[in-house]
């Protein structure tokens, strides 16, 4: 055991009002300036403590928000600027400023959360494995979610009458399948995702190879069935969160340079796999052949070229789509004022409701196969709150992620690590698509994992008292 850094509650002496002054406001401004200085000092100390923790013992805490969230923001938008370039003199400079504000906001959120943490809190050693006791309540919840989700997705495919991944047009087939399959089965099928993450967490904590094999099979089945519906993001999300949750529960939370190379290799495999799936989508979506480069690569069966084009299409999304969102709001769409974060909930209701990515596509008069134009994290923040959103939305995200990270370190519980693994990956992935603009799943997944981490222990305690 080691104690966390003692920060946040320390206070420097505030400037005292000048004694005997006759100016009514002379003393009032000094405490205000002193208060701001103390607040800024607390944030700075919090950030320093977060990064001391992230690099403690010369081993990198790769999943810490100070590392993963900040690096994800910089790398996604940095790659976008390199591949896409500056989208015009006005928007280009604005987006650059937005990235700087977002990084500063994220760091401020991390600093605030770390500085406000209880200085007396005992943190588990960074590499301490989670408890090996199998939580029967958690296991039952995880198995039930997986079974319901897998049955729902099979019924979804039966109702569609085919497999969208193998239809003549993958991209259009995905959209049409979503309309034919119905929202009820689509939502129920998503329950398998948090179920597999909790199952992986329980299996790893038990160190039982039988449970590890069963949970691995559940992850594989869920990913393959999600991919069969042509929902690429859900298929990758299943695997990404499962791997990270497994590593964190096992106790692999800090890495040496050698292990960091191994993690980089895993990331590279995911990137290549994304490119291959994108290449398949291009080859089997005739609507994308309007692009001469894609058409040429398809004609000569240049799969390497298609993979490169798919990866480039992903890399330019953060910058390109932030630019498109700024072109749509407020010129064609009014300021959203937070509405995009709850808009996906409406898609579960009867009738036809749109998500914000579809609104952007319609507002800009875009015509292409598939869904809409996802706004990216900065685009979504801008559409809701204008330029101030570039600072304050990342600030909130940094605060929440850091709070969850420290809770997981304190409790060292499988469910808390599963919750944190999903949260950090969701925020990193949001640099591409935004937080919740095209799917209701982020709300469902978060609610289930919060219940598993915080609500289930309360239910267990209440049940034991009734016995």
Explain what the structure shows.
By secondary structure, the chain is an all-alpha fold. It has one domain. It is built from 18 helices and two strands. Strands 1-2 form a two-stranded antiparallel sheet. Helix 2 crosses helix 13, helix 3 packs parallel to helix 16 and helix 16 runs antiparallel to helix 17. The N terminus is likely disordered.
Compute the average pLDDT: 86
Order of helices and strands: EHHHEHHHHHHHHHHHHHHH
Strand order of the largest sheet: 1-2
The main β sheet shows up as: 2 strands, antiparallel
Write the layout of secondary structure elements.
Elements (H helix, E strand, L loop, with lengths): L1 E2 L25 H26 L13 H17 L4 H27 L6 E2 L12 H25 L9 H12 L1 H7 L2 H15 L2 H20 L3 H19 L6 H27 L8 H8 L3 H13 L1 H12 L27 H8 L12 H10 L3 H23 L2 H20 L7 H26 L1
Antiparallel strand pairs: 1-2
Helix pairs in contact: 1-3, 2-3, 2-13, 2-17, 3-16, 4-5, 4-6, 4-7, 4-8, 7-8, 7-9, 7-17, 8-9, 9-17, 10-12, 11-12, 13-15, 16-17, 17-18
Structure summary:
The chain has 467 residues and is mainly alpha-helical.
For this entry, give a set of tags:
single chain, disordered N terminus
């Amino acid at each position: 055991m080691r104690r966390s850094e003692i920060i946040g509650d320390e206070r420097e002496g505030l400037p005292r009002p000048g004694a005997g002054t006759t100016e009514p406001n002379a003393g009032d401004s000094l405490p205000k300036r002193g208060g701001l200085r103390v607040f800024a000092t607390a944030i700075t100390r919090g950030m320093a403590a977060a990064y001391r923790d992230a690099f403690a013992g010369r081993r990198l805490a790769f999943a810490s928000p100070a590392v993963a969230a900040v690096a994800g923001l910089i790398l996604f938008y940095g790659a976008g600027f390199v591949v896409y370039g500056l989208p015009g003199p006005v928007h280009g400079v604005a987006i650059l400023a937005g990235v700087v504000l977002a990084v500063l906001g994220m760091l401020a959120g991390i600093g605030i959360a770390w500085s406000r943490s209880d200085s007396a809190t005992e943190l588990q050693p960074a590499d301490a494995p989670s408890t090996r006791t199998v939580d029967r309540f958690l296991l039952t919840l995880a198995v039930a979610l997986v079974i319901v989700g897998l049955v729902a997705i099979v019924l979804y495919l039966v109702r569609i009458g085919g497999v969208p991944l193998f239809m003549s047009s993958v991209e259009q087939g995905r959209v049409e399948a979503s309309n034919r399959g119905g929202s009820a089965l689509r939502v129920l099928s998503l329950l398998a995702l948090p179920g597999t993450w909790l199952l992986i967490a329980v299996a790893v904590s038990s160190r039982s190879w039988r449970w590890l094999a069963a949970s691995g099979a559940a992850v594989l089945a869920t990913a393959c069935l999600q991919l069969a519906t042509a929902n690429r993001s859900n298929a990758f999300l299943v695997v990404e969160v499962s791997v990270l949750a497994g590593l964190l529960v096992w106790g692999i939370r800090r890495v040496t340079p050698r292990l960091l190379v191994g993690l980089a290799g895993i990331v590279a495999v995911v990137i290549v796999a994304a490119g291959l799936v994108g290449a398949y989508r291009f080859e089997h979506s005739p609507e994308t052949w309007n692009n001469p480069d894609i058409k040429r690569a398809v004609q000569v069966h240049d799969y390497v070229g298609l993979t490169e084009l798919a990866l480039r299409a992903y890399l330019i999304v953060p910058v390109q789509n932030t630019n498109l969102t700024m072109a749509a709001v407020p010129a064609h769409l009014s300021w959203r004022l937070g509405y995009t974060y709850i808009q996906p909930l409406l898609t579960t209701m009867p009738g036809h409701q749109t998500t914000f990515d579809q609104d952007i596509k319609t507002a800009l008069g875009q015509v292409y196969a598939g869904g809409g134009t996802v706004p990216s994290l900065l685009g979504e923040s801008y559409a809701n709150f204008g330029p101030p959103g570039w600072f304050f939305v990342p600030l909130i995200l940094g605060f929440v992620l850091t709070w969850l990270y420290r809770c997981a370190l304190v409790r060292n519980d499988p469910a808390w690590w599963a919750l944190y693994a999903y949260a950090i990956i969701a925020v990193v992935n949001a640099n591409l698509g935004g937080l919740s603009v095209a799917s209701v799943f982020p709300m469902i997944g978060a609610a289930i994992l919060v219940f598993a981490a915080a609500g289930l222990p309360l239910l267990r305690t209440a049940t034991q008292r009734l016995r």
